[in-house]
Amino acid sequence: MNAQPIDTRHALEALHAIDAGCSREEWHRIGTAAIAAGLTVDDIIAWSESAPNFAGERDVRAAFRTITPKGGIGAGTLWRAAMAAGWRPPGREHSGGRGADAGRAEQPHQKATTGQRGASAGEVWRRCLPADESHPYIEAKQGRAEGLRVVPAGDGLRIAGQSVAGWLVVPVRPLGGSGDEPASLQFVPAPGQGKKLNLPGARMDGVFVVGNLEPGGTAYLCEGIATAWACWRATGRAAVCCFGWGNVARVAAELRRRDAEARLVLVPDSAKERDAERIAREAGALVAAMPEGSPQNFDANDFAQAEGFDALEALLDAAQAPELRFRLLGANELRQLPPLAWRVRGVLPAQGLASVYGPSTSGKSFLLLDMAAAIAEGREWFGYRTKRAPVVFVALEGEAGFRLRVAAWEQAKGRPLPAGLRLVLQDFRLTKDGDVPDLAAAVRSAGAGAVVAIDTLNRAAPEADENASADMGRIIESAKELQRATGGLVVLVHHSGKDATRGLRGHSSLLAALDAAVEVVREGSRREWKVAKAKDGQDGAAHAFRLDVVPLGVDEEGEPVSSCVVARDVMPQEATRSRLPRGGHQKVVFDALGELLAKEGRFGAGCAPSTRRCVQLERAVEALAPRLACEPKRQKERVRQALTGLIASGVVVCREGWLWVA
User: Fold this and answer.
1) Mean pLDDT within 466-479
2) Half-sphere exposure (CA, 13 Å, Cβ side) for 570?
3) Distance between CA atoms of 370 and 385, rounded to whole angstroms?
4) How far apart are CA 308 and CA 267, in angstroms?
């Protein structure tokens, strides 16, 4: 067709001549062509409402959100589809040798060119005849004729190119509306003679009520007229035909607004139960679902035909409220909840997200390894009962160093590392696509309810800004994803901030997201851990420990090799506290000395014990001076004064020019 319409009114007429109940692909193609012809998404919505499979206005807008008139489908597609459905462009309505009745059939469409969208619902309704129970559709569905009409035999009305003479007519009326003038019409053929059609150009946002809606009474919300008949016949209560599932949510909301006490029951066709539950939650309604295993689109009328109306009544009476996302619990329900499951009783839960954190050189990684071994063995740890579980330790601080830690633990304990403790020494990122699900799969192979220890958080997300809420949010969500996928406990080793009194380093959202946290602190040679956060646990109880150096022989160059192992420190706190550094400079120098020893210290230098790391006095003064906040020319003097005080209190030992921690 080469001629173009003089304006969009002809395009609108052509659109409504096409069956909107076609396949999804064809529907989208026709809608795209309509936009190319100058129509709007609102026009497509009005056309789509005439289809029994109309999914709602939101669905239409989403489908055509990015469509423009410059798309690959042109207006010619619309003209061709409309002409194939029986539509003729202006001036050609009576071409093709059609008879007088056919000419009269086109008159409603001619009226559309004067500003209406298709035939008037009132006009068509007035020329239809009252229906009776002999109509094939009413007979087949065991319905009733009250309130319905039939298109007279020989009537020229055609919809989507199809004659609807003899079809049942169901009026679409506004909810609660009065008067005989319907807003739209639905046409229902005899069984096997086609599918339902809606009046083109008329909005299908009304209802047809079978029975009487009573204030505070029961109303069944159904997709089609046959389902409404069945519900009314089975119970004697009102049933509301919504003319398509896409309209049910709107009707339910309006009924609830009008009557807060009404008992609304959604009666979905099979395979629509999940959406029915969503609508029911929003409207405060119940759902009467078809029996499990019913074929797709099996409805209440089909059930009544197969099982009888008594069986349908029982099914409707058994309607259930949808499961609510949020449960409202009272005291009795709370008492019936299972108790919290512990992995380390009072310290770490069996499930959730936890952290072991502290400053550098505090011993937190050694402590977590010792805890992991105790969990894998099911042994008591620092006097706390543990419940045995598999443990996967993700060691990101270097294969060689961790191998020495394990060797030291085995030598000190006199037994091999527990079989339930497995190690991952490969690179792992919480923020890298694929790493979390891949690690989760490996963890699940170790056993159910495993503990995953990640050492450290910084190495697991090196590119992230820990102080940024967005980056920390991604880290937390990835850790929770790992926890959900494994069903156990994820423990993150992390550092404390520059101000240790403020807890974990980075954004505060991390501590808020944790179910448990263990803080490790170090003051001089004394180390201790305490519960900083625990579900139903007691925060703040401190437990002293020490790191005993375990000699492991010599390396290939003859240098001594050693590592450390955690041991409980049972010395009275009063005795040790008297030896702690005093004053700001002493504390700074002592902490910096520990870092220097860990980095440069030599075991057993001078007359020091073979288990102690040592550094030369002058090297210590040189390295520690910049750490003091005083005049540069006085820094070395202040370091010597601080070291003198530490040596005098017995915290630091100096022999033959070498320093080590007592």
Assistant:
1) 90
2) 2
3) 14
4) 17
Residue 339, both tokens: 């108790």
Burial of 216 (0-12, 13-18, 19+ CB in 10 A): exposed
Q: How many residues does the chain have?
A: 662
**What is the torsional sign of CA 219, 224, 228, 234?**
negative
Residue 483: which H helix or E strand, with range? Answer: helix 469-486
Any idea of the CA torsion for 38, 44, 50, 55, to the nearest 10 degrees?
A: 170
Helix and strand counts by DSSP (H, E) for the chain = 25, 27
User: Which pair of structure tokens corresponds to residue 528?
Assistant: 């201790």
Decide which of 72 and 639 is more confident.
639
- Cα 468–Cα 473–Cα 475 angle in degrees, nearest 5: 100
**Strands of the sheet with 489-495, listed across from one edge:** 421-424, 391-395, 451-455, 489-495, 352-358, 516-523, 526-534, 542-554, 560-568
User: Pick from 620, 622, 644: which is nearest to 632 by CA?
Assistant: 622
Cβ atoms within 10 Å of 450's Cβ, excluding its own:
24
Beta carbons within 10 angstroms of residue 485's beta carbon: 17
Using an 8 Å Cβ cutoff, are 55 and 246 in contact? yes
pLDDT band, residue 171 (cuts 50/70/90): very high
The structure tokens 């309704």 sit at: 125
DSSP secondary structure letter of residue 10:
H
* Preceding amide of 456 cis, omega within 30: yes
Q: Which residues contact 439 (CB under 8 A, 6 or more apart)?
A: 394, 424, 428, 452, 482
State the fold for domain 342-568.
Rossmann fold (3.40.50)
Domain spans of the chain?
A: 1-92, 118-205, 208-317, 342-568, 581-661
Q: What is the band of 662 on the pLDDT scale with cuts at 50, 70, 90?
A: confident
CA-based radius of gyration for the chain: 40
Output the six-digit token pair for 554. Answer: 């010599």
Mean pLDDT within 448-457 = 91
- 305 in Cβ contact with 345 (< 8 Å): no
Q: Does 581-661 carry CATH code 1.10.10? A: yes
Which amino acid does the sequence have at 81? A
Strands (E), 57-152: 129-130, 149-150
Q: What phi and psi, each to the nearest 5 degrees, are found at residue 439? A: -65, -40
Q: What is the pLDDT of residue 95?
A: 39
pLDDT > 50? residue 93: no
Q: In what order do the strands lie in the sheet with 602-603?
A: 602-603, 613-616, 658-661, 652-655
* CB atoms near residue 252 (< 10 Å): 24
Which among 289, 293, 292 has a CA at the least distance from the CA of 280?
289
User: The domain 208-317: what is its CATH number?
Assistant: 3.40.1360.10
For residue 620 the two structure tokens come to: 């210590």
Tell me: pLDDT of 185 over 90. yes
Q: Report the alpha-carbon distance of residue 253 to residue 248 in Å, rounded.
A: 9
**Local confidence band at 540 (pLDDT 50, 70, 90 cut-offs):** low
| Residues linked to residue 207 through DSSP beta bridges, in sequence order | 173
Strand 489-495 versus strand 391-395 pairing type: unpaired
Which residue type sits at 90?
Answer: P
Residue 578: the pLDDT is 46
- How would you label 337-354 residue by residue, b for 16+ Cβ within 10 Å and e otherwise? eeeeebbbbbbbbbbbbb
Using pLDDT thresholds of 50, 70 and 90, give the confidence band for residue 115: very low
pTM of the model: 0.48
